[in-house]
Amino acid sequence: MTHDQNARPDAPGRDWTTYYIAVSGKPARETLLEAIGRFERERAGKDDDRNRIALDLGCGEGRDTRALLDAGWRVVAVDPHPEAVARVRRITGGERLDVVQASIEDLASESVDRDASGRFPIPVAVDLVNASFSLPFVPPSRFAVAWTWIRGMIAPGGRFCGQFFGPRDSWSSIPGRSHHDLSAVRAMLDGFAIELLREDEKDGHDAEGNPKHWHVFHVVARRPGESSVITLP
Fold first, then answer.
1. Nearest Cα to 187, choosing from 225, 217, 210?
2. How many domains does one find in the chain?
3. Cα–Cα distance between 31 and 59 in angstroms, integer?
4. Which of 54, 41, 35, 71 is nearest to 196 (CA)?
5. Is residue 1 part of a domain?
6. Which range marks the domain in which residue 34 is found?
7. Which end of the chain, N or C, is more open, meaning fewer C-beta atoms within 10 Å of its C-beta?
8. CATH number for the domain including 82?
C-alpha cells in the first residue's frame, strides 16, 4: 500500500487548515465521552458542584475542548500549532478556558515561556488528561519523560483518556513517531485501574480521505484514590 508522506499528520508541508476544516463539526472522541460519563456517575448523589479541571493535550480544532466545556469542566487546551490555538481561542469558554501553544514534550520538560508573574502555564495537577490521537507525535527520544509527566499530572481519583498507535499502524514508518504494542501500553498504565482498553486494527482512511492502515489502542484509565479540590496556580 502506498501513502502520500505529505498527507500524514506532522509531515513536512502538512496543510493544517485543510485538516481542521475536514474534521470541523465532528463529535468528541469516544474515549473522552467515556471518561466524562464515569466522572458524572461518580458525582451523582454527592454534594460536589465544583468545576473539574481537564488538560486537553493536542486539542486540534477543539472538538474535545468544546465537549468538556459543555459538560461544565474547566479546560487548559494545549497544541503546538498556531492554527489550532487560534481556532480554540474562538471557542466561548470565558474564565473556564485557557489556551497554551506548546508541544506535549516541551510542557513535560517545562521548555515553555512562563507568564508575567513567572508561573508555569499549567496547573500542578488535573482531574483529567485527555490526549486524543496526540501522543504518537511525541518523539520517541522524549516520550518516556512526557509520559512520566502526564502520569504525575493526574490527581488521585483522576483519569487519563486517549490513544496510542500500535506498531502495525501505517504511520509507524514516519521518523520521530512513537508507537507501542499492547504489552507496552499495559506497562505504561501500571498502577492505574484500566476502565477501557480496546485495540482496533483495520484498513481505512484518514480525516482527509487518504488510505491508511489503522492500529490504535483506545484507553481510559483511573488513578486510584479519592478526588479533592484542585487549586489553580
1. 217
2. 1
3. 14
4. 35
5. no
6. 30-43+50-222
7. N
8. 3.40.50.150
pLDDT tens, residue by residue, 17-53: 778 888 888 899 999 999 999 999 998 877 666 789 9
Q: Give the residue ranges of the chain where pLDDT is below 50.
A: 1-8, 10, 12-13
| 118-127: pLDDT as tens digits | 566 788 899 9
Task: Output 209-213 pairs: Cβ under 8 A, ≥24 positions apart.
Answer: 210/3, 210/4, 210/7, 210/8, 211/1, 211/2, 211/3, 212/3, 212/170, 212/171, 213/1, 213/168, 213/169, 213/170
Instruction: Specify the pTM.
Output: 0.89
> Does residue 135 belong to any structural domain of this protein?
yes
Asked if the structure places residue 231 within a domain, the reply is no
Distance (Å, whole) CA 89 – CA 98:
8
Within a domain: 94:
yes
Rounded-to-integer distance, Cα 77 and Cα 84, Å:
10
Phi, psi of 86 (to 5 degrees): -65, -40
